[in-house]
Structure prediction request, 207 residues.
Amino acid sequence: MTSSTANDTRERILAAAATVLSRKGYAGARLSDIAELAELRTPAVYYYFESREHLVNEVMSVGQRSVLEHVLAALEALPPDADALEKLNSAVRAHLEVELTLSDFATAVTRNAGQLPPDLQETFKADSRRYFAMWDGILGDLAADGVLDLDLDVRVARMLVLGALNWTAEWWDIRHGELDDVIETAQIFVRGSLLKRPCDDLYSNID
Prediction:
């Protein structure tokens, strides 16, 4: 077997695992289902991945990178003078786009992050730190622009927002509305959760 053929087969297994994980979740993802989708016999999977956990870990790592890269690309495409609110809206849109329609790897991440056993959770947390840092930067920019609700615990707010966005993969399909409608509603929801209300300044000077 040439290295090119081996790499192609490995990528095919990864893609099949991402699809199965995105549809059935960690608990329901069987190697036999993955092998069947990859058009292989189940024992052949072990030639490329030493265990089911190793395969899942690789899918989650690829998926987390795909989410990060897609959202970063969306932010980098904004005009240089884009304000923090534009960055927030763009990040919400890009996150939902890649999660719901562009990548089974990304969907696998959002569906399975909370289902992983402790050892895989630790690896996944390491892969997630850059993404969390990017969102912390957006929230920091909102604070610098004077529009973030300063009563919020920023870390908790970030995790609540990402939790809400990630949960969309559990229920959304086209029967639940057009993707753009879901994205626009999510943007309104996130802004309402994070931004200072116009009346806050009126009450800030009241003892």
